[in-house]
């Protein structure tokens, strides 16, 4: 998240261009993305359950 916040344009281009990657690189990137999203979701859900995070 810090990278995406600090480098918004690069992150946008990187996300936008995933479809242009060749296999197996595309699948590797998509697996990493899913892993990161699950981790972030877990942190947010845990913070919400503990009253530390407010979800709008």
TrEMBL record:
This is HTH-type transcriptional repressor KstR2 C-terminal domain-containing protein. It comes from the Bacteria. It holds the Pfam family TetR_C_24. SUPFAM superfamilies: Tetracyclin repressor-like, C-terminal domain (SSF48498). It comes from Streptomyces aurantiogriseus. Residues 1-54 form the HTH-type transcriptional repressor KstR2 C-terminal domain.
